[in-house]
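Note to self: user wants both folds in one dump. Writing first protein now.
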Amino acid sequence: MRILMAVASRHHGTWEIGEVAADVLRRRGHEVDQRAPEDVASVDGYDAVVLGSAVYTAHWLPAARELARRCEDGLRARPVWLFSSGLATQPANAANSPLEIRALLDRLGARGHRSFRGRLDRAVLSFAERAIVAGGRAREGDHRDMAAVAAWAQDLADALAADPAARVAV
């Protein structure tokens, strides 16, 4: 099965989550193209899509939201899973719940959404981003659980093997 892994990532941390998931899917026999959302003109030619984004100020990055809007009809016609990565350390865990996810799940008919903890390096953030992070009292460091990412990708591969239209409970 040919899968598009479209990942919007500002500082490469979310991109690396996509790489882990893509590697698992490849090991399960799928052909996976990982691309930035702005480089995707169409989802034609793909059997399934995984769309992910970093979360900033409780929103997906504009490139991911725009891909979902631009390719909405094509996404609705195939199995789609969503994932997010952002602040997930207490007390800032609410910042990893993008406001638009429920509507996006419904609009695209997506099979599920999974939030993953992110990586926080204040040195690469803009002034506004540092102010938001300070207000949320987020802890610096790499909080990503790549084993959880790999397990989630195994679940996606299992669902696709059993039934391409199957829903994955995540």
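First done. Writing the second protein, which came from a different request thread.
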Amino acid sequence: MNRKVGGDRPARPNGRILAIVCCLPLAACSLITVHTPGGNTRTMNQREFAEYVEHVFRYHNQVVNELIELSGTSDDIDDEDAAELAKEEAHMLQVCASLNDVVSESMTGQDTDFQAKMRLVDAVPECEAATRKVEDLLP
């Protein structure tokens, strides 16, 4: 079987095309798509996402502090509203646990594993939505 030199050989990819194809996954990793509590989709870079995480963490802590203050003056709320508030508070604490864990690890200098950080993409908007529900129930 005689082959022509270079005739049947597959074309070698252009170096520029190869660089673009290899860099696309890296560029995609630096952008984070978040489904906001309002139902919108928002794409953020890593810095914007870190700011969003911090914003939700601070907002969540503000509402938790308001709950603590409310516990001392629980006469202002009737039993039915108190039961709904307690239910939503428990849900909020459960949903926000991974956010609190990652922030606590970060504040103590521990290295957070990649999977925990990736869970924040869904957990932070869920925490924000649950925190809003609790805040709306506060008297």
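Dump finished. Worth passing along: The chain has five helices and two strands.
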